[in-house]
Amino acid sequence: MRLIFLLSLSAISTAVYSAPSILQNRDVSSDELYQFKFWVQYAAAAYCYDDYTAKFGNSVSCSDDFCPQVEATGAKIVYAFSNTTSTDTAGYIARDDTNQVIILAFRGSYSARNWIADIEFPYTDSGLCDGCEAELGFWSSWIKVRDPVSSILNKTVNAYPDYELVVTGHSLGAGIATLAAADLRGSGHPSVTLFAFASPRVANPALADYITAQKNNYRFTHINDPVPKLPLLAMGYVHVSPEYYITSPNNVTVTAGDIEVLEGEVNWEGNTGTGAPSLTDFPAHHWYFEEADGCKGSELPWKI
């Protein structure tokens, strides 16, 4: 499915879209770097079967040492979801008492139904603002779990009113997380912080501007990762700003100096400027401070 997906796009040029790119000249602090490396572990945990199928009260855990910092907090699963919708949207809500945070994490692409959601390119009206249109597959992935997830999330936030709320995910999970965070901010949770790793483009310019204006968005790309280049600019999709562009190679420890903070819905100084999406560039998609999707299974199930 991924091969067909990329090859079908390779003939469409991104050069038809031009927009100013502005480099924000500021350094990433050591504290920010620590936060980035911490939150990607919650995104990584969303790929772990034992987390997205967990029972209430289970600890967040990862195989093969993919989330040691999260495991050290003793964070508990409040709600887990998977295999209940046509899009197979999966993830969990967890409560981290050590850091006083409630986390909503979405799994990236794993099942065949996820890949179908990835390539549903038509726009749909998100209803978040006038003219705000989202990519159909990503928006549907959120909408199909929104009611139960929001219900549990509201109860948890009400029980722990002093806790911060974080939404995160990698790849498809980051795309869903971006739309979920925007929706939640407009429905009683204005201070939601988003950590989106390797997110595809999810919005038209109106919606991207709307989400950008909400602030508290941390959207990461890595060198020539092909996924953030999709759907293509030629289709009218753009990104939420800013972009935290990781410039270090694959499988290398990321330092603060390896991250460039770039502004704009299209910025050719970052991932967008590294060429058309290519299958050979997929190694960059996996490495976001660590192997962000290392916990997922190797098969491609229709149902899990």
TrEMBL record:
Q: Name one GO molecular function term.
A: hydrolase activity
For this protein, the record's CDD domains field holds: Lipase_3 (cd00519)
Mono-/di-acylglycerol lipase N-terminal domain location, by residue? 8-77
Q: Does the keyword field hold Hydrolase?
A: yes
Keyword annotations: Hydrolase, Signal
**GO BP: any one term:** antibiotic biosynthetic process
Using the record's annotation, list all stretches that form the Fungal lipase-type domain: 104-233
Give the signal sequence positions.
1-18
Pfam families reported for this sequence: Lipase3_N, Lipase_3
Coiled-coil spans are none
Please identify the protein, giving its name as recorded: Mono and diacylglycerol lipase
Name its species: Penicillium malachiteum
